Amino acid sequence: MSSEKVEVFVICAADSLEQSNAKAFRLSRINEAGESRPFSIVVIRTHANDYFGYVNSCPHERIWLNFGEGSFFTKDRAFLKCGRHGSIFEIDTGLCIEGPCKGKSLEPIALAVVDGDVCICGVKLEESGFVDPFDDGDDTMEIMIHPE
After folding, report:
1. Integer Cα distance of 24 and 64 in angstroms
2. Counting Cβ atoms within 10 Å, is residue 18 exposed (0-12), middle (13-18) or buried (19+)?
3. Residue 148, in any domain of the structure
4. Beta strand pairing call for 140-142 and 21-30
5. Would you say residue 67 lies in a domain?
6. Residue 56's closest CA among 83, 75, 34, 32?
7. What angle is formed at CA 46 by the lines to CA 30 and CA 18, rounded to 5 degrees?
């Protein structure tokens, strides 16, 4: 058994995300060189109360999934959808089943629900502790997370 500790950072309260909904978060990730880089993710809560996370980047042209229409879902909320070119993705696998990037997948993010919070696992995030309380109109929260 490995004694390596996996980093876990709280993203949001699990109940702050409604069933069959998604929310984007802009984080700062530390790369291999120790530099802070923007890291946009989307957290999805399904109707069955499962949580999935992906890098918020369509494999077609690397733009946010919610760019354009501002939504993450098809009209029936059965699939994720790229707002720019209409690619359709399975929620539970991230696989594109229709559109310009058919056969490619969204980059998954490991999530866990711990003590009522949705947490990202195994990603080294910026440790500034900054949370931007201002809504900039794009339904995306700017957060920097400081682990204790």
Report:
1. 9
2. exposed
3. no
4. parallel
5. yes
6. 83
7. 85
- Flag whether 1 is in a domain: no
Gap between the Cα atoms of 24 and 12, Å rounded: 11
Domain boundaries, position 48: 8-142
Contact 8, 44 (CB under 8 A): no
Residue 78, C-beta contacts closer than 8 angstroms, at least 6 positions apart: 91
Interatomic CA distance for residues 132 and 115, integer angstroms:
24
Measured distance CA(92)–CA(74) in Å, rounded? 14
Residue 125's region, left for phi above 0, alpha for psi from -120 to 50, else beta, is beta
pLDDT tens track for 82-120 = 988 889 999 999 999 999 999 999 999 999 999 999 999
Chain segment 35-91, per-residue pLDDT in tens: 888 999 999 999 999 999 999 999 988 878 887 767 899 999 999 999 888 899 999
pTM: 0.80
Q: Is residue 101 part of a domain?
A: yes
